[in-house]
Amino acid sequence: MRFSSPSLALVVALPALVAAHHEHIVGRHPGHPIEARQATTPSPSSSGSVVGTGTTAAPTPSTTISVSLASTNPTAVPLTAIVSNQPSSATKPLDSTAVPGSTPTFISGAPPLPNPATLAPASYPTLDRLPPIDSPEVQEWIQEVKNTGIVIPDLEPTVAGGCPANAAFAADQSRCWWTCGGCVRDTDITDCPTAMDWGLTYDDGPSFYTSNLLSYLDEQNLKSTFFVVGSRVISFPAILQTQYMGQHQIAVHTWSHPSLTTLTNEEIIAELGWSRKVIKDVLGVTPNMMRPPYGDIDDRVRAISLAMGLIPVMWTRISPLATFDTDDFNIHGGSTTVEQVLLNWKNILGNVSTLDHGFIVLEHDLFEQTVEVATGYILPDALAHNPPFKIQPVVSCLNKGLSEAYIETNNNSTNPPALAAAISAGVVTTTSVSPSSTGSGGTGNAGTGGALGLASPSLAFMISLVGLVVGAYAV
Ligand SMILES: *[C@@H]1O[C@H](CO)[C@@H](O)[C@H](O)[C@H]1NC(C)=O
Ligand SMILES: *[C@@H]1O[C@H](CO)[C@@H](O)[C@H](O)[C@H]1NC(C)=O
Ligand SMILES: *[C@@H]1O[C@H](CO)[C@@H](O)[C@H](O)[C@H]1NC(C)=O
Ligand SMILES: [Zn+2]
Question: Region (Disordered) spans which residues (predicted)?
Fold first, then answer.
């Protein structure tokens, strides 16, 4: 399936392509409105000499890039108007509004849709802040993780600032820290199995501009996966219901969008738990996939996610310089331009043509600019692509029905829950939990996992079900 279409000709007049695909660096979104905790972290340009990254200076706004696309949306916002600090325009009303109490017909066994008016924001943590870990809810989820018997690797949290600020951790292959080198494990979803399949994803919503994206997706009969932030769900529950009832896949993207590897085990549980809960409260079902903000995952975050029934979904990365990140997020803050984002997209297409499998790309529905570049340019170009792409949610590109995307409705016999899949793949190990055991026969290699003590020395037995050490998976 290699091809070279003249219609995809790319005219470039800029110093170099090297600016295109820097890796996601922890805290690299300088303009992110929901990242108070990241305020002091460095900008991408300060992360130059990091293990496994190809980071270079961001393009200057004066850079001239001309990209010819196979097609654009005739009603697209002109490229010159898609800029940082552009005046915001009106959003489209939702095409359809979900009716509370109606039952989704496309997911067998799904419960009726809750009434979003009954959502009580006061019973959730403060928006866009790390939730406290001493609430009854978080304590219950900590117990839930303990009950799985999963060994949480004893890895010290990273400090804010990504790879440069964590040189020793960045160099430590055994931690499998995606941020610094792109390490993945067998259970991570990083692409679609079938060539020319695109597992479409949008992160950080729902937002004011999500309705504009939904309107275009409806028009083109496209379905996507949305990795939603719990705090945004509190603000826009009706949009989440419309996405779900429109047969898009809903998945977890934390409560307040932190870099998960910087958190303690309990904080990670709080972030994933509250976002899982608010989605369940609004939709009646619980997602079984998650995407870590910034792609910031290591074996500790993986083990906790899997123990909470959440399978990590990344985006395709074929080399340090070629991660399938459009960098659309950074138009809003001004550290990239829409022209550069389209050049990144053309590079992704070039890389796609060399793959014998499908792919997943990082895009966002948070900002007006990200939605405008998607609906005006990237999606129309993708729809005109030859050979054609099969554009679909991640769960669909894995050849599973939408019901397989939720804990309550997935067919447990054909889609083993995250934890079972991870154990059989050898990505995590478990202890046998014996509540009555008080002996001191514990093993020394179990993670202390911070205060969680998930594999405490009081356990009489520690059985590695698969006999594999997590760190044995080099990438
Ligand atoms: C793949 O992407 C990289 C980084 O953007 C780019 O330099 C390279 O030309 C692309 N490969 C192809 C075959 O287009
Ligand atoms: C699968 O297991 C979950 C609990 O892990 C349960 O809630 C759900 O109903 C089960 N699915 C089916 C189709 O039985
Ligand atoms: C799960 O899928 C298998 C294979 O398609 C089918 O035989 C079985 O009845 C399904 N079980 C449930 C609970 O839907
Ligand atoms: Zn995000």
Answer: 32-63, 86-114
